[in-house]
Amino acid sequence: MTDPALIETLKSLVEPGKVLTDAESLEAFGKDWTKHFAPAPQAIVFPKSIEQVQAIVRWANEHKVALVPSGGRTGLSAAAVAANGEVVVSFDYMNQILDFNEFDRTVVCQPGVVTEQLQNFAEEQGLYYPVDFASAGSSQIGGNIGTNAGGIKVIRYGMTRNWVAGMKVVTGTGELLELNKDLIKNATGYDMRQLFIGAEGTLGFVVEATMRLDRAPQNLTAMVLGAADFDSIMPVLHAFQNKLDLTAFEFFSDKALAKVMARGDVPPAFETDCPFYALLEFEASTEEVANAALETFEHCVEQGWVLDGVMSQSEQQLQNLWKLREYISETISHWTPYKNDISVTVSKVPAFLHDIDEIVGKHYPDFEIVWFGHIGDGNLHLNILKPESLTKDEFFAKCATVNKWVFEIVQKYNGSISAEHGVGMTKRDYLHYSRSAAEIGYMKAIKAVFDPNGIMNPGKIFAE
Amino acid sequence: MTDPALIETLKSLVEPGKVLTDAESLEAFGKDWTKHFAPAPQAIVFPKSIEQVQAIVRWANEHKVALVPSGGRTGLSAAAVAANGEVVVSFDYMNQILDFNEFDRTVVCQPGVVTEQLQNFAEEQGLYYPVDFASAGSSQIGGNIGTNAGGIKVIRYGMTRNWVAGMKVVTGTGELLELNKDLIKNATGYDMRQLFIGAEGTLGFVVEATMRLDRAPQNLTAMVLGAADFDSIMPVLHAFQNKLDLTAFEFFSDKALAKVMARGDVPPAFETDCPFYALLEFEASTEEVANAALETFEHCVEQGWVLDGVMSQSEQQLQNLWKLREYISETISHWTPYKNDISVTVSKVPAFLHDIDEIVGKHYPDFEIVWFGHIGDGNLHLNILKPESLTKDEFFAKCATVNKWVFEIVQKYNGSISAEHGVGMTKRDYLHYSRSAAEIGYMKAIKAVFDPNGIMNPGKIFAE
């Protein structure tokens, strides 16, 4: 698939050894965490400067070669998969923190800075980078921006979008744009920074980003509550939101908890069995705040919404309570689950979840549905475990039908077919369940503005 | 200028009496708070529904008539001025709050809802709409979105952008788009909602917006501090930000304060004369927070940054301290001031302000410079009072030179020529000081995508 003469011209644009074409590299850098598409790039290139990125993009335009940006490759939608002879542009060698300003609380990052690297840097400054999720140890800032990464603290801190003060991008024509210049207030026309956030590399590549930091949270404290039924979760959320500034409000089902408990390495929160659990977190910055949390808990028990609960009294206990939620995804991966990442507005969550439970239960009573997610922001992770009686192929054939039901219900509730994992290739064909034909038309026209030759991550979000 | 036959066809699209062409209406609805352009629209139309807005836009495309959206007409950049025979589309009859959801904390607003109407509605629900500024009593939500309005609480709550959960827009072709569907998490391609926010009506019209509310702030408390010099303001901001979640951090100069005190209707904060003052606000939700504020104040005095200070002990005192800052703009309007609304990153503010003071003072020693602004977000309002010895024309001729210096210094510090007032027509010719030629080119191309016939508020942000 690789054209040797073409690759030689690419090599001339970067440092020696920074173009790889061996089979192992093509395999490794051609994919993300999804497994549905076979990686087939023709080369991997590792720029070390913005100028080299620009040169690569100009080269790609000249030779009509498609480019795929590559960060930590932890994506779950195949947005960073190169399955069609593309050249992968890896930002692994543009991974430095370039500057820090304590007054502006900003950090200038190259796109290859790993999320955890930024989190740790912030901590060293006595500050906080609040976007956090399971893959923080390998995901990169450029990829976070490309997918507008969310995670477990969105209810308080919002998505990655909220933390991008400014950025430099190289568009599909190789032009360098400096977007927003790190300003808080800037009313000078269209905020194109926002367009590139969540664009999955289809408009251009993020080559530098100034990220904001926040003050460090004080005495983070978690509660795990056992709910009488799913419908009780919503008034519990409401009651706590009226009293506290929550930093997280997660939920998981008894089935999810049972799988985690079966591991044997996490202490139980409490003895009472409940059908659903909520994990909430807040800053117990003063005793008054902690008391308000306890009073609200008691109110929820009196109302019959909550059957039992526990509040962390130490950093260790905080970590242990979080494990009940954070270990779910990895734990259930052994059951080859069908997974879907969807959202609706918070108030619609109970009816939405009920509809999906009902239709799946009716047609496939042997399917075990494991729900968990960021319920404080309406983002549900639907997981269906493969019954032992089915082969993988049989199971995923049935799941294709489930997919259609789920997206129809998403559409019915005016929700999103992808809450935080992006569209990439895995959800491309379902985009019309969430976006109108007119919207998709405008999106394609915007892409043509920034990428007239269609070389920037083509086939992602929508078909070429 | 009005074409009677054409206007008849327009009248057929809306309710009887909802097209005005009398001289008084043309004058009133053809302008905003700027005075630089003579209003000259050919008609004013008042749609009452989204369908009517779509019909008007289709009509405008058919007849190649330019449209200017019109809200509270409180703009300061002439973005809502119709000076060239346009038809003004006023949203005065689309001014209803349509829905409220207590779980999502969202309010569905028609574009003509007045900011204060939304603020009051939120208060009635025990919640809070945090975007606030001098013209909140007449500005409308549609206009706020069009200019991404900021104001006095941005340091804590951000701009209007942060509070738009979703919106319906009519594009320049008359298509209706429902953008983001009020979701918190939605990773389905380009977030076009963000493009329309701050677009000054040049891409389409906002015809409905779902705005988020926040919990009501608790026991808002203000401090006014007298600073030893301007350079001391920044470490004071830094010290307080490290200890408190500030809801505001404003500043003003002794000259600004003197004008307000001369009114005689505001009690002084304290006796000590200082060259600069800071007004900061926070939620004194517990005694511990109030104590942390007092300790920080004492630290600032010990460091020599602060000479005197006062903390509000009552709602009345809070209001009175805010008057010291909020009355400035109206008070100095009697001196026919040259005004400019500019921003840089927070850490650059002292050097930036110094440069402007120096060049203006050197060339025009008789000019009285009055500084105030939202220093916590880097947004400065520069005001120069007209010396009595100069006529208006002489003064504004000299100010044209000042303008150029100011924008050159903005460019030097990588700032924004318009922090929150927008570009409109008044700053259109200076846009290149803040945005590169490439960026302006992309903006024009984006406009062509949504408004191929160039009928949506043409000549605003950039020349046609």
TrEMBL record, chains A, B:
UniProt-listed SUPFAM superfamilies: FAD-binding/transporter-associated domain-like, FAD-linked oxidases, C-terminal domain
Cross-referenced PANTHER family: D-2-HYDROXYGLUTARATE DEHYDROGENASE, MITOCHONDRIAL
Source species: Pseudomonas marincola
Protein's UniProt keywords contain Transmembrane: no
Catalytically driven reaction(s): (R)-2-hydroxyglutarate + A = 2-oxoglutarate + AH2
Single GO molecular function: (R)-2-hydroxyglutarate dehydrogenase activity
FAD-binding PCMH-type domain residues: 37-216
Any one Pfam family match given in the protein's UniProt record, by short name: FAD_binding_4
Family: Belongs to the FAD-binding oxidoreductase/transferase type 4 family.
Record InterPro entries: FAD-bd_oxidored_4_C (IPR004113), FAD-bd_PCMH (IPR016166), FAD-bd_PCMH-like_sf (IPR036318), FAD-bd_PCMH_sub1 (IPR016167), FAD-bd_PCMH_sub2 (IPR016169), FAD-linked_Oxase-like_C (IPR016164), FAD-oxidored/transferase_4 (IPR051264), Oxid_FAD_bind_N (IPR006094)
Protein name as catalogued: D-2-hydroxyglutarate dehydrogenase
Keywords recorded for this protein, A-Z: FAD, Flavoprotein, Metal-binding, Oxidoreductase, Zinc
BP-aspect Gene Ontology terms: respiratory electron transport chain
Entry keyword annotation includes Flavoprotein: yes
The protein's assembly and partners: Homodimer.
